[in-house]
Specification:
Elements lengths: L13 E11 L2 E2 L8 E8 L2 E7 L2 E8 L3 E5 L5 E5 L3 E10 L11 H6 L2 H6 L5 E5 L1 H17 L8 H22 L3 H13 L6 H8 L3 H12 L3 H19 L4 H7 L5 H12 L3 H9 L14
Antiparallel strand pairs: 1-8, 2-7, 3-6, 3-8, 4-5, 4-7, 6-9
Helix pairs in contact: 3-4, 5-6, 9-10
Length: 298
């Protein structure tokens, strides 16, 4: 975990390990982990990252156009992209401190990013939705990659641009921390009331906002509709219940606020790409038996 343990980056320089900018076919990559830092940005369409722990899914993150996710090294995950998803992918490797020219070592580049540095002390990834503010730096890196055929793109300008990229992501992340107070009130109410029947009228009354304004500002600030956010929160709570209890799916659906088992099933499939039954098998499947070619069947 390079970004979590930034002291390990002293004297080491970041280099571009791999890169692509293209439209993807609909596919799900094999579950994998690596010792590189991964950056994935959705330009068009949608994608989904599922993080794993000992072969079992523990968290799913949906990505929409403009979203950029920065993932620390060492975390096992799987990427699924819908057909036609246009994405930019960048993989950064921290080269050994072998006496090479570290014009801007990894520690210096990352230590300047206060918000990111704090975030990665407890998080495996950081998600921002402001690709346009990062685009110029990313395009400069792309030009360097396209002009150098070496596997590890490693020279002065690359190290400067990677440092600049970290700083830009840090600035974007700071903006997300300065959350609109109205949005904070909405998400706080949803967190406390997700098990109940929620309507726009009820939420608006609880936070003292006009219904139309509430929906407009929430979509603008988060990129999600109110009910997309509610559904995402409920699904993540249902995953915790699958992992920690033996409740039947109908009971889980009721516990997290779905009207019935079928609406829970449909939302779960859309959010995770799996049926609840198969997802629970992933959670309980013997770790020693888990491999990419040997997974539980629905």
């Amino acid at each position: 975990m390079l970004l979590r343990n930034k002291e390990t980056l002293r004297g080491r320089r970041f280099a571009v390990h791999s890169y692509f900018d293209q439209k993807l076919p609909g596919y799900t990559a094999e579950t994998h982990g690596h010792n590189t830092v991964e950056l994935f940005c959705v330009v068009g369409g949608k994608a989904r990252y599922t993080f794993m722990d000992e072969g079992r899914p523990i968290e799913t993150v949906l990505l929409k156009p403009g979203d950029l996710i920065l993932i620390d090294a060492g975390h096992v995950h799987r990427l699924a992209a819908e057909d036609g998803c246009r994405a930019l992918f960048l993989e950064l490797r921290a080269l050994p401190a072998d006496g090479g020219a570290a014009y801007v070592d990894g520690y210096t580049a990352f230590n300047a990013c206060g918000a990111l540095s704090e975030a990665f002390k407890k998080n495996k990834y950081v998600l921002v939705n402001d690709f346009m503010s990062l685009k110029e730096t990313v395009l400069k890196l792309q030009a360097l990659v396209n002009s150098d055929r070496l596997r590890y793109i490693d020279h002065y300008f690359t190290q400067i641009l990677i440092a600049e990229l970290f700083l830009s992501i840090d600035e974007c992340y700071k903006k997300t921390l300065l959350e609109n107070p109205y949005v904070h009130r909405i998400t706080d109410y949803i967190t406390r009331s997700y098990q109940e029947e929620l309507t726009i009228r009820r939420i608006a009354k609880a936070v003292s906002l006009n219904e139309t304004y509430l929906q407009k500002i929430f979509r603008k600030e988060t990129g999600f509709t109110v009910f997309e956010y509610v559904t995402q929160y409920r699904i993540n709570q249902s995953i915790a219940l699958m992992r920690n209890t033996g409740l039947k799916f109908a009971d889980i659906a009721a516990e997290v606020g779905f009207a019935n088992r079928q609406s829970f099933y449909n939302a779960f499939m859309e959010f995770t790409g799996y049926t609840p039954k198969l997802f629970r098998k992933f959670l309980t499947f013997p770790v020693s038996d888990y491999s990419a070619s040997h997974v539980p069947k629905d």
